[in-house]
Amino acid sequence: MITKASTDLSNCDYASGEVILIDKEKGKSSFNAVYRIRKIVNVKKVGHAGTLDPAATGLLIVCVGKKTKEIYKYQDLEKTYSGIIELGKRTPSMDAETEVIKERSYADITDEMIDEIRKSFVGEIQQIPPMYSALKHKGRALYKLARKGVEVKREPRTVTVYEFEILKIALPEIEFKIRCSKGTYIRVIADDFGEKLGCGGYLKALHRDAIGKYKAEDALTVDEFEKKNNFIAD
């Protein structure tokens, strides 16, 4: 069963397996959501189908109990995101998690230029995974190395952007919506977008709207899930 906002949780059998749609809040890690849900349902096997960075919000699919064996089914689904790219600035993490390290003028950027660059990202594209990511190098997470100023070579990966829509342009901000394959780093798209325009850019905000047919609007926050289960925290 898919546990979402409209679900009557009194019939849930978490040990046997449930799939929970969670609306992750800003500032909390995906691991934090899993940790809290594990305490609420009192089941050891809990995992999520695709990490959201702490600064990002939106849909996180959490599998509980025997449903953890099916996580791969949700990981393989396409993802839909909406967010904001801010032009004229770059950050090491390519998002708002780190301080701006470079600023350039965006005064000569036009709507037509933005649309031309947008088109170049539709279809199969190559991405180099960011250093500020959970990918491992010799057993260590890349972001831990990045925080120490260490950079290692990463091989480019092929991902697919099915749709890339510009929703609003109010420079320096560009509001967008993207539907893409698994493994796509939206932060990298933001950084590459800014570099192609010649002014730099970073991902200012990100929300995961959907994973396949599952939508953030049908999800529960962890607090709401906690209340619906009548859980009292220690």
Q: What is this structure's SSE topology?
A:
Layout: E1 2-3, E2 18-24, H1 30-41, E3 46-48, E4 57-64, H2 71-75, E5 79-87, E6 89-90, E7 102-103, H3 111-120, E8 123-127, E9 136-137, E10 140-141, H4 142-147, E11 157-170, E12 173-180, H5 186-197, E13 201-211, E14 214-215, H6 222-228
Parallel strand pairs: 1-2, 4-13
Antiparallel strand pairs: 2-4, 3-4, 5-12, 5-13, 6-7, 8-11, 9-10, 11-12, 13-14
Q: Which features would summarize this protein structure in a list?
A:
234 residues, alpha+beta, Pseudouridine synthase, 2 domains, ten-stranded mixed sheet, two-stranded antiparallel ribbon, 6 helices, 33% strand, globular
Characterization of the model:
This protein is of the alpha+beta class and 234 residues long. The chain folds into two domains: 92 residues, Pseudouridine synthase (2-Layer Sandwich); 133 residues, Pseudouridine synthase (2-Layer Sandwich). The chain is built from six helices and 14 strands. Strands 1, 2, 3, 4, 5, 8, 11, 12, 13 and 14 form a ten-stranded mixed β-sheet that branches. A hairpin with a 2-residue loop joins strand 11 and strand 12. It is globular. The mean pLDDT is 91.
